[in-house]
Amino acid sequence: MFQYLPSFGLILLISLLLSASLTPFMERLGLRLRVADRPGGRRQHGRLISRLGGVGMYVGFSVAVLATLMLPNGWLPPRLDQKELFRLAGLLLGTSAVFVFGLLDDRFEFPSRPQFAAQFLSSLIAIAFIIFIERTNNPFTNQVVQFAWPVVWALTIFWFMGMINTMNWLDGMDGLATGVAAIMSAVLAVHMIGAGQYSVALLPVALLGAALGFLPFNFNPARVFMGSNGSYFLGWALAALGIIAGAKLATVLLVMGLPILDVAWLIFYRWRRGERASLAGRDHLHYRLADMGFSQRQIVAGYYLFSAAFGVLALGLGSRLFKLVALLILTAAALAVIVWATEASERKKAVHDA
Length: 354
Description:
By secondary structure, the chain is an all-alpha fold. It has a domain at 2-248. The protein is 71% helix and 3% strand. It has 13 helices and four strands. A hairpin with a 6-residue loop joins strand 3 (135-137) and strand 4. Helix 4 (112-128) crosses helix 5 and helix 7 packs antiparallel against helix 8 (227-244). The chain is globular.
């Protein structure tokens, strides 16, 4: 491992510096092109803010990933899977496709149907490049369960669309989605390194650098937003890396558990009230906490702590059964927080309206 440290450091540095150097330029360009969020609505910022921040992350990640193909032989970890380069091409193509669609969405603000169609088609890119969920380990018997192809397609499409929407909905507060993505990238990198997957571990390291380069500009008070181009890119990349890491989906679910459950709860909550699931509103958990009086930094720090704690837990638990127990505990804790925040904010709103 130690002989490959220069390659890990270089990839991290490339993605971080490119992301950090491009973001101020995209901040100005977004304002000039009027691809920006205006004050009011769900976001409570006080001025026009560019939505092109995701460009720096995408460019930093893509260039860093391409750089992994050009490192000196002594620096580059050996590729243990002959299909690794094929998956790498799919990763770059898939992230590029959703990034371009995200840019178009930031410019034209598409309704939900074109967005879901784009997410669906992007998941087909993953399947075409053998980035799919084909098996899992039974935590009770430790036996491998092989899925039939219709199940593989359904699970993979659901996984990618779910991760994209989770990241997109999570991007509602300064630094929230960016920081959680950075934590997820770090956990995946450590997991891959621990499993001896040094060559693919360079990929989450590249994503980590891109997120860290953008975060100082996006943290409260944000100078620039990532926009749909950034949230779509991060969601698709994390979904793909979770599979490339050896389908360690339990690890991803533990780190992303709170935002994922918030999305699931919100869909149920809106359905129960007869509202469209894709409706924009302030009923996400982070907005409810803000309406209850918590500051943006307190809420973001809470999300970071939650994700990091369960990420460390996922890395420390070797038993699949223990991971299942941890996942159930996470689900119960997260749902308790979500239901409490929902009821508390509804009571506060009722008192205010009265």
